[in-house]
Amino acid sequence: MSHGRSVALWWIRRDLRLEDNPALLAACASGAVAPVFVLDPQLLSGRNASHRRNAFLFEGLRALDQDLRARGSRLTLRQGVPAEALGELAAEIDARAIYAEADISPYARRRDAQVAERLPLVLSGWPTVHDPVAVLKRNGTPYTVFTPFGRAWRSQPLPGPRDLLPAPDRIRTPAGLASLPLPQPEATQPDGFVPGEAAARQRLQHFTHGPRAAIYSYHLGRDRVNLAGTSRLSPYLRFGMLSARQAALAALDAYHQAPDKAARQSADIWLNELIWREFFAAILFHFPLVARRSFRVNLRSIRWENDPHAFEAWCGGRTGYPLVDAAMRQLAATGWMHNRARMVVASFLVKDLLIDWRWGEGWFMQQLLDGDPASNNGGWQWAAGTGTDAAPYFRVFNPTAQAQRHDPDGAYVRRWVPELAQVPESWIHQPWEMPAGVQHESGCHLGEQYPLPLVDHSWARQRTLAAYGRARGAAPPIEKS
Questions:
Q1: What pLDDT is recorded for position 393?
Q2: Quick one: which of 53, 347, 383, 389 could link to 146 by a disulfide (CB 3.0–4.6 Å)?
Q3: 276 catalytic residue (yes or no)
């Protein structure tokens, strides 16, 4: 089948949207467009694949196909190694070019290089606001500390309303293209996360628009795990159902429309969280080795305990520390976890159980709807103290103190750990101290309905500090590779 040299492929990867999509508009400018998504087995069934995230993706593709059909187009689905699948489709329609958004991860960059060797691949736009190579030091080297990176990021031109690209009114697509059916999801979609571009825009609007928008109280509620104080936009940003520029512009608009100083500061704090996302993306782009090992050379020789039984208890939310268990059960049930809870459970795995952070990173990637290689790796290395702008290695979160501060009445714990639902507030975050009579009255006998703590936190902290200290003393002074 030949449709002439005016046909282009729009290769969809992490940009499941029609608005503010440079790759789509570049493809449309060349003539007819065939939107295509390749079911890549490396991503859909590889080591870090997630049935739940796949389900969110498939439903997002279904929503995108409906949006395309409303504009006279449709989605073409192919399967296999991208270079081969795209080559076959390009030959079918005699496509002159393949347009796609650039990507960050080591695998994505290898994949794109393989495609570019065989086919005319044109990359346009990024899953970030700024191109990772645009935010560099004066000497041309990348930043490895967040604060100066953030200042440099803010000094770059920031998006305004006129910078966002409109969705095409019509998309002319060749007829008769063979397409696989969309796979049926292997996991149910959790409540609260409706896939698709329309749902993403609605969520962003609700969070940032209006004098009572949640962004204006973000500074008050963002660390409270028992409150709906965050945007919960991360799954949509992960798959590009919302562009990073759209999110940043909404934050800037909210800042300028804020009713008072506190509200402005709050909007700026949320923008700063978006910049953290950009920072982690830049780190993975410039230092792909962090996908495999610790950034800090002097912490690569830590002697981990790596107890598989302790790891299984952590995964299943059976550590005996209520906040940790509640968060891990929320993750298992919904594919999402509050960021404060992510920091707590990561610190617990690495610094209470002395288990390699890569075990936790992999588990999160298998569970999270928003599982993003850069953000997930950056968050885990931050918690482990092994990353670039990491928390000091000697910072160890106390899971009980964190629970008392960020779930003060125990509502979050009671929701996700029903065994503790009747435990009085004074014992909810340290049930191991409950007298026998209170255990009987609350129907929660320690060691039976709910486990005793896996480790003593104070002892575990000292063990970890010693292990990190030995690694720092044994490390070579110069990076060798």
A1: 74
A2: 389
A3: yes
